[in-house]
Model the fold of this input.
Amino acid sequence: MTDKNNRRSQNWYGKLDKDGFIHRSWMKNQGFPDHAFDGRPIIGICNTWSELTPCNSGLRTLAEGVKRRVWEAGGFPVEFPVMSLGETQMKPTAMLFRNLLAMDVEESIRAYGIDGVVLLGGCDKTTPGQLMGAASVDLPTIVVSSGPMLNGKYKGKDIGSGTDVWKFSEDVRAGEMTLQDFMAAESGMSRSAGVCMTMGTASTMASLVEAMGLSLPTNAALPAVDARRMALAHLTGKRIVEMVDEDLRLSKVLAKANFENAILANAAVGGSTNAVVHLLALAGRAEIDLTLKDFEIGGEIPLLVNCMPSGKYLMEDFCYAGGVPAVLAQLHDKLRPAHTVMGKDISSYFDGAEIYNDDVIRPIDNPVRLAAGLRVLRGNLAPGGAIIKPSAASEHLLEHEGTAYVFENIEDMKANIDRPDLPVDENTILVLKGCGPKGYPGMPEVGNMPIPQVLVEKGVRDMVRVSDGRMSGTAFGTVVLHVTPESNAGGTLGLVKTGDRIQLSAKNGVLALLVSEAELEERRKTWLPEESVYSRGYAKLYIDHVLQADRGADLDFLVGKDTRLVTRESH
Done:
């Protein structure tokens, strides 16, 4: 137990001098009485609420749930805003700003007199960005996610955000769905506050947060508008006060085992490829040695969750079927012993958990797919690695060799993908350059390129696609992503020409450009990176300092932590 006189907040609010006067007095203009500053733990509620981030639009309400229990538990809750990243709303990509959010969170936590922090987030980049920032300061930290939307509905059927959008869009292009029906589906897709109700990146990260023991059990799947999520927020307020008393900092919870459990859980739930880059970045902040090779432990984990985009159900169904605790119970003999914010081993999160619908969550002896974990690919085309998601791919394309058709950048792709004379067939491998961390910038979710119009009209719905970008966690297809080094950093991808042969073997972890090294050396002599249009501000800082995907695309000067107390006053 920590002595209240040694709490971090006492350096702000416990001094009986001019500095203490200023810190307390200005806070009192909000109506806080003297006893609020009696040494009780001050709990920061780090809120990413924003009307421009619809996924997080319910977080104001959840913040009130946290506050009321913090007060009950003898703490002093203070809510503060940080940058909010609306995945569907921001250009050029929300990923460009994940590290900026992490800086905002880190410096806010460091600069303010709080003893512990509750992270309120949900939309794709907010959860990892908040955790990265918190890990670099290392206070007692716990997560409350915004939760998924209710199931989408269209013509009496469930539809999933993202996943069905891609399908409907291709159907319109193929003439199999009218524009009127497409627009009608739009109104039924998003029926409540919350994140995508598919197992996209937002729900993936919430699931992994729970599997890592960084939230209370059941945090991942409870719908955003379910009263039980408000109750969870309430209980979290109690727990964060206890964590401060126990001095249970993030560094005392996070270890390599927590990350390994996240990798195993990601495979079992059919989670997003984006989890790779986020976990790598978080590990860098927590000073834990995690590399792409570690993700290979998920390669033989069966797919247990039958949710889009790897299955047919949605997050609301996943919740009612048992959620993350039911999945962890099925993986119990594969999980690593690991600490949690509850002060107990991760096994306590699934003790007694059951499956209530065994088509939504499959028992481990009857999986949706036998081996579903993300596959790490290497070869001369990706010496630093690339990844593919077999559970969202076409089985017959996972072992494939074909001729490349190259798009030099996203503008080239958009201008030409629907050309009626595009020289491609179903065996062609589409290659997209210029979409890595430096190149776009920000590594956008464009790796799942549209199928060319000439092939859509013939009924083709999947083909091998290769890029240095990412794809949405709601997307599907045989898509090779995160090729490292990226084309704009001098990677081999930048040397690929239309007509080159490329070999993909997900089974053997191979991504090879079948061009001689001598020829590649000749191409390197004339290669130049695409000139960036960003010459100032944060984007320039990002381009100059961003690491490659295999390092989590964090900024080089942000890796690691600084737990020193700020002692200089501003007055």
